[in-house]
Amino acid sequence: MSAALSWHRDKQRLLMLLLGLLVGLEFLENGMFVFAASYIVGGVHAAPREFAQAQAAYAIGSMVMIVLQQWLSRHFGYRRYLTVSLAIFLAGALASAASQDILQLSAARLVQGFGGGALFTSSRVLIPMLFGAKERGLAVKHYMLILFGMSACAPLMAAGFVEGWGWRWIFLAILPLGALAMAGCWRLLPDGAGRGGEPVRWAVTPLLMVAVALTLLQLGLSLAPYDVFARPAPLAAMAVAGAALLLAFLWQQWRHHEPLLRLRELRNPVYGMGLLLYFLHYLLSNASNYLFPIFAEHGLGFPLAAVGWMASFSALVSLAVAYGYIKLAAKMPNKKPMMTAGAAALAVAALMFALLPSDASAWALLPGLIAKGMFGVMLVLPVAGLTFRSLSDEAFAHGYQSKNLMRQLAGSFSGAMAAIALENRQIAHGAPAAMDGALSVAAQQTLLHSCQQLYGVLALLALAAAAVVLLQRQLK
């Protein structure tokens, strides 16, 4: 009996580590991809405008998989669903590493997105399914710490791989971890997890509708930084058509008795406010993460490895704050001050970066990096804990599915807007909006000033987000 109990406890611990590995794997791979994007562009001989299509391809595949997540898990169970998804994710990584041109890379990233889209939502939804009330807190702790820990490794690992072995190792490096996760899913997940109930019947029309809508929106957002000034009309038409199709899909899902997205179950003011605060976090976070490598490497002139260390240091601050929050959260009955301080921390970081001189040392960036790392946790973790508290276990799965769909759209929107704003600032200063290769001193100064102007805007947006957090009454 004691041996059986010991194995049960060991298996529960392994399951906690497995769920953290699943979400950490996607965050690690995407973090390395974003950090090394300019080197991957050169590797496949693509223009930045063409490379945007490869970035969009992953997001499209991921969002389609998020929409299908409930249908697939009900039919096949999470054991088979996640094992096959990981196989698709790793096949996409292999194909990405073998790509010789942008078309091959885009196709490979689309495949990888189909697999990767299953990981974040499924791993979080499985926690209430696999663990009782007493173990759930420990499972969430492992989940969060592994997520933030692997995210912290991404910039430094990307810099090391690119400088040591080349850009293809950005994709090859995740294969051992992915294989370990596959084995863990097949060996540890219960066969019936996620199955049962009444499976949603296969419906081709809404799936095609949402796939086309997301493709139009994602391509429009990805191509906007390169075409918004030259060809605004086609981009506007693409955006309007995509938005109209997405609204039609949501309306169809609202009225359907067996929807892919159960929107009617999510009519809750607490959940709605939580989604808004999630949106603000992803908007600010993605814009900040897009801007910092450009600012540090091309604006201030730091080498890639140094920028990798800086970004990883900021992420390690997030990890430390996350650990402290997990330890002390139960002693904080009112979390609104912490959420407000989190948004304000990004405003402080952005203002510090905006005021740096062009010859600033790495030490001068340290206070801003610490504040940036604090923002990475102080807003989103309390929001994560409060948003879903009023939802049932079944509604939680649908709520997390919708939240991650919004996460992808918010990330694409903020990245596109940051790129457009940076290009606009460079044009306003009379310089070309290019960052390929070494920049002249004048071009570097122009880019630095453009980044610092955007950091000023980011500081104002972060203060506005802090005001929203402070004034709202649903999440406390």
From TrEMBL:
<feature type="transmembrane region" description="Helical">
    <location>
        <begin position="454"/>
        <end position="471"/>
    </location>
</feature>
<feature type="transmembrane region" description="Helical">
    <location>
        <begin position="168"/>
        <end position="189"/>
    </location>
</feature>
<feature type="transmembrane region" description="Helical">
    <location>
        <begin position="233"/>
        <end position="251"/>
    </location>
</feature>
<dbReference type="GO" id="GO:0022857">
    <property type="term" value="F:transmembrane transporter activity"/>
</dbReference>
<feature type="transmembrane region" description="Helical">
    <location>
        <begin position="56"/>
        <end position="73"/>
    </location>
</feature>
<feature type="transmembrane region" description="Helical">
    <location>
        <begin position="80"/>
        <end position="98"/>
    </location>
</feature>
<keyword id="KW-0812">Transmembrane</keyword>
<dbReference type="InterPro" id="IPR011701">
    <property type="entry name" value="MFS"/>
</dbReference>
<keyword id="KW-1133">Transmembrane helix</keyword>
<dbReference type="InterPro" id="IPR036259">
    <property type="entry name" value="MFS_trans_sf"/>
</dbReference>
<feature type="transmembrane region" description="Helical">
    <location>
        <begin position="362"/>
        <end position="384"/>
    </location>
</feature>
<feature type="transmembrane region" description="Helical">
    <location>
        <begin position="110"/>
        <end position="131"/>
    </location>
</feature>
<dbReference type="Pfam" id="PF07690">
    <property type="entry name" value="MFS_1"/>
</dbReference>
<dbReference type="InterPro" id="IPR020846">
    <property type="entry name" value="MFS_dom"/>
</dbReference>
<feature type="transmembrane region" description="Helical">
    <location>
        <begin position="271"/>
        <end position="292"/>
    </location>
</feature>
<dbReference type="GO" id="GO:0005886">
    <property type="term" value="C:plasma membrane"/>
</dbReference>
<protein>
    <submittedName>
        <fullName>MFS transporter</fullName>
    </submittedName>
</protein>
<feature type="transmembrane region" description="Helical">
    <location>
        <begin position="338"/>
        <end position="356"/>
    </location>
</feature>
<feature type="transmembrane region" description="Helical">
    <location>
        <begin position="143"/>
        <end position="162"/>
    </location>
</feature>
<keyword id="KW-0472">Membrane</keyword>
<feature type="domain" description="Major facilitator superfamily (MFS) profile">
    <location>
        <begin position="15"/>
        <end position="476"/>
    </location>
</feature>
<feature type="transmembrane region" description="Helical">
    <location>
        <begin position="304"/>
        <end position="326"/>
    </location>
</feature>
<feature type="transmembrane region" description="Helical">
    <location>
        <begin position="201"/>
        <end position="221"/>
    </location>
</feature>
